[in-house]
């Protein structure tokens, strides 16, 4: 049974030495209880405490890191079955399959896309990061892995049945933490030995959940922590059932043999690109850690990345921008001043319309804990006696001494009060309600 933070704290040394990376033993205990830290981060836990805490303190789904640097993919560490219970932790790593049959031009194209494909959406950079290299020929596996690493720095999944071939390809790149795919009933001991020797993660694969759990138990017994599961789902129904059962077993029953992130290969499930996107979306929506596609067509990758982002944002924490003054279209001291809230969607909607207007402008973003204009106004956060001190302290009057401030049309009712709060020299103007009307409004403003 899971222990509370307080129960765990009682078993810790209570010296607050910080060596675990947390400021106090209590902070460490709370992270352990939430499954966000590992007991062996504290070097001073006694053997008795370890025996008592051991299993209870490990996260129900282990954290696994594949790759290194900017392209590293972190998966696992999940603690809930449903997003609204808390949040999902790590967006799945999207990737592409590269095989030994592909010609050079195709491989170059895919690696080029992996290197360059990046979408910025509401302040987050979204991109595919994984190259899954499948080659029966050990020399080709090693060569393609090295190429994917040097050309794209991709997080690698190395696919071959033979432990020797996996070792030869992974050893020169072991610092990049490639995922060895896959240990099966036939080769488990040999692949596990390579993973242990090189210190890299490995996948285990079986054609039923029962057999997968048996292999998972072997991984637990061997104290292998960086493991990824492939239940070999063949149909959409299997994907839904397998991913859900694995997640339920790990979270609800703390069933350690299935307490690892998963990998899915929609690229192998159909030849129809649109159907593949549908399969991939089910993997994304239903807990998969890594999802491998057959190509990187932006028309399918972009929606999958957006879907991931939507599912994996923290529902208790609105996405927000930093408070500050954002210059758009190279404004001067005569440019208009707009003020709005730091809800990311508000910022990106307003800033993109200002940008589209081609009118230089200063956009003042006020911290209201990520709420939209009307919500923040209703909560008493985007009101005259809060906006006035923000504007005065922001320094906007030095950048645009005309001090004419445009507020969103939705809070027109605060204009008089804000005028009073700001005092002499300032002028409050009421802007438009809808962002789509901003370009016309700004062009008229500039013409006057
Ligand atoms: S390393 Fe151990 S003793 Fe030190 S602060 Fe962390 S939990 Fe406490």
Characterization of this structure:
The chain folds into three domains: 5-57, Electron transport complex subunit B, putative Fe-S cluster (3-methyladenine DNA Glycosylase II, Chain A, domain 3), CATH 1.10.15; 64-312, TIM Barrel; 324-447, 3-Layer(aba) Sandwich (Rossmann fold). It is 41% helix and 16% strand. The chain is built from 17 helices and 17 strands. The strands form four sheets. An eight-stranded parallel beta sheet has the order 10-9-8-7-6-3-12-11. Strand 4 (119-121) and strand 5 form a beta hairpin. Helix 14 packs across helix 16. It starts with a helix and ends with a helix. Iron/sulfur cluster binds next to helix 2.
Please outline what is shown here:
The protein has 17 helices and 17 strands. With 448 residues, it is α/β, with parallel strands linked by helices.
